[in-house]
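agent> fetching stored inputs for the zinc ion docking request
agent> found them:
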Amino acid sequence: MLVRDLSRMASRHGYLIRIGREGVAPAADGGIIQPQCDWPSGAIGIGEWQGAPIAALGEAGSPEWPAARQWLHSLPRDQFPLLSSALQVLKWMRDHRFCGRCGKRMKRLEHEFAMHCTGCQHRSYPRISPCIITLITRGRELLLARSPRFGPGMYSTLAGFIEAGESAEEAVRREVFEEVGVEVGRVSYFQSQSWPFPHSFMLGYYAEYAGGDIVLDGAEIEDAQWFTPEDLPGLPPRFSISHALIDNFLRSVASGR
Ligand SMILES: [Zn+2]
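agent> prediction call returned; pasting tokens
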């Protein structure tokens, strides 16, 4: 488990995650945690792992390294929060080098993830963008959709960013209607997940179908269908909350709940 404590980062020694422009460096054990070492300059401590400090390093990397998304299929489960934190912290530091208010160079504050502007005192923190992700159900059927960027045959739950001023439940109803044209009745919270592509925070919901036929939005969604548990398409990667929403629903159908 990643312990989110930055008090021991000054030693500049510990585990390391190496993030390249195109991928994440594999370690000898098949995961992404490199053995303990003195951290190269530019490494950013992100916490402690198995009793030792751990840092993320952004570098050019090698085109041979598997892409971050590819790791979702093979990464040991307990390393997902490390990958997620490393990707997001590095991206935030890269994108917030200058003050968004006055334009001066920002300075990293020690012991927390904050960039501080000495000119106007503005602070920036890692950007986290809340999204809803929802599985629409109708009895024992589930509505799954595919985006043009999915791999062949893969379908998933619907997702979208929460707009400024909107509640998560309102976002569920709006996204569902915009993307597939159906109305939903009861909406119930499931669980959440940090999703570092690039900095989403997914709030998972079940939504019960209430009416309407599937009408595709034509842009974000290229197909959407009702599926039964016996006849499922390719599903999203196992670490994703989308997979968990589907899996949990299938288990409840199988047990007759
Ligand atoms: Zn400023």
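agent> quick read of the result: The first strand starts at residue 2 and ends at 3.
agent> awaiting further instructions
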